[in-house]
Write a structure and sequence with these properties.
The protein has 417 residues and is an alpha/beta fold. The protein has one domain: Rossmann fold (3-Layer(aba) Sandwich), CATH 3.40.50.11900. 51% of the residues lie in helices and 10% in strands. It contains 16 helices and eight strands. The strands form two sheets. The chain has a four-stranded parallel beta sheet with strand order 2-1-3-4, with helices on both faces. Strands 6-5-7-8 form a four-stranded parallel beta sheet, sandwiched between helices. Helix 2 links the parallel strand 1 and strand 2. It is globular. The structure holds iron/sulfur cluster. The site of iron/sulfur cluster (SF4) has 9 residues, from helix 6 and helix 14.
């Protein structure tokens, strides 16, 4: 392999996975089901990430994730307008841009496709399990829509491995209480056997996702980070449905075929990298800039935030354990431990921190994680600032210059002259 890394003249264009066509159909079907939910007599429940989506499918409801929708608005280049609308109503630009963008869409009654946006929620369901922004954001939406609001409380945990039993049983009770609240608000009878079925499907999707995640350790790595972020849609929105299971079976088979035939996701893999943390929805192509220098993202934690094995014979306790073990809740040293295992398993050369301007809670710990990995493993890192949804603060030239410097550093370490 050559010592000197030269930037190719043609920008890298990844070969799309054939399974992405199936993803387009899933997407379309989901938004059609959401649009016809009221007419079909299905409750529309707006939920935060890390809220138990399985409960909604157990009631034959349609979950809607404002965070996911803001990401869609960002990728469709309408997020900046929505953020400005929300700011015009007095909200701060410093607010989480998922919230800012969603409020703009709500206030304008306009959606990601130039349509009238999504229907109002029948119920709002939030959890305190991911971050403190969620319950306050959901409270504000409750005042706007004047509909029932359920907030699921969850205790703070340091990491999934030292989870106290009383924290699990407390959250299990909260989840059960939420199920009976949904029963009350929808008038639909809660059916524990239906919940078991949904939890079983949720577990199957998670297991398949974990298989795909394991296969990323192959050299060369078989799937791009863009495909990982894109294919997360089914795990986020359809977890607990047979459609999600079928999609991940197809994806797993395609990724396995690549591994069996040593087909890499980029043409000339030279550096194996970790992406931390949030995607940049308005500029996913930034990931391709790394690929132009042979940089392949081989693992991340964000992609695993929505998976997690669950036991359908004990749904509430099992869901409680999964949602409390969610890695983002871990303290910085807990996350560092997770990364240390992945650095070895995935043969990682460096880590890239996206310091997400609007998500202060998870950006604050990145310098410490970076330092732990540098001190203990001598792992090189780079950090750049952006906003996951709002493109107005993104400096493309500056970020690319930083990437080039980082690649030079990796080059001199891995391929010294
Ligand atoms: S991006 Fe950060 S602040 Fe916004 S909802 Fe997610 S965790 Fe909370």
């Amino acid at each position: 392999m050559e010592n000197k890394q030269e930037k190719p003249t043609d920008p890298f264009k990844p070969a799309r996975l054939a399974t992405s066509a199936a993803l387009g159909i899933l997407n379309e079907n989901y938004y059609n089901a959401l649009a016809s939910a009221k007419a079909d007599g299905k409750p529309v429940i707006w939920i935060t990430s890390m809220a138990p989506i399985e409960l909604i499918y157990a009631f034959d409801g349609i979950p809607f994730f404002p965070e996911n929708y803001a990401a869609l608005c960002s990728s469709r280049k309408v997020a900046a307008e929505f953020c400005e609308t929300a700011e015009g109503s007095g909200m701060s630009q410093g607010l989480c841009s998922y919230a800012l963008c969603m409020f703009g869409s709500i206030f304008e009654k306009r959606g990601a496709f130039g349509d009238e946006g999504v229907d109002e929620p029948d119920i709002l369901l939030a959890t305190e399990g991911a971050c403190a922004t969620h319950p306050k954001w959901w409270e504000a939406m409750q005042r706007h829509f004047n509909c029932p609001l359920i907030i699921i409380d969850a205790a703070y945990t340091v990491d999934g491995e030292t989870l106290p039993e009383h924290h699990k049983s407390y959250l299990a009770a909260e989840l059960e209480k939420a199920a009976y609240k949904i029963e009350e608000y929808t008038g639909k009878k809660f059916d524990i056997d239906r919940l078991r079925e949904v939890v079983s499907l949720s577990d199957q999707a998670s297991e398949l996702w974990d298989d795909i995640d394991d296969m990323r350790a192959a050299v060369p790595t078989p799937i791009t980070q863009i495909d990982v972020f894109t294919c997360l849609f089914a795990l986020v929105t359809l977890r607990g449905t047979k459609e999600a299971v079928e999609f991940y079976q197809q994806l797993r088979d395609e990724v396995k075929e690549r591994v069996d035939n040593s087909v890499g996701s980029i043409p000339n893999e030279r550096f194996r990298l970790i992406w931390d943390l949030f995607p940049i929805y308005h500029n996913m192509r930034l990931l391709n800039y790394f690929a132009e220098f042979g940089g392949a993202f081989v693992t991340d934690l964000y992609g695993n935030a929505f998976s997690g094995r669950v036991d359908s014979s004990d749904p509430f306790n099992s869901l409680a354990e999964r949602y409390l073990s969610f890695f983002m809740r871990s303290a910085s040293w807990g996350k560092s431990e997770l990364y240390k295992k992945r650095i070895e398993k995935y043969h990682v050369d460096g880590i890239v921190f996206h310091s997400n301007r609007c998500c202060r809670c998870f950006s604050a710990e990145q310098p410490e994680i970076s330092q732990i990995l540098r001190d203990e493993l001598r792992l090189p890192s780079m950090t750049f600032e952006a906003d996951m949804v709002d493109p107005r603060v993104f400096d493309d030239a500056q970020v690319k210059a930083r990437i080039e410097t980082f690649i030079e550093m990796l080059e001199s370490r891995k391929y010294p002259k």
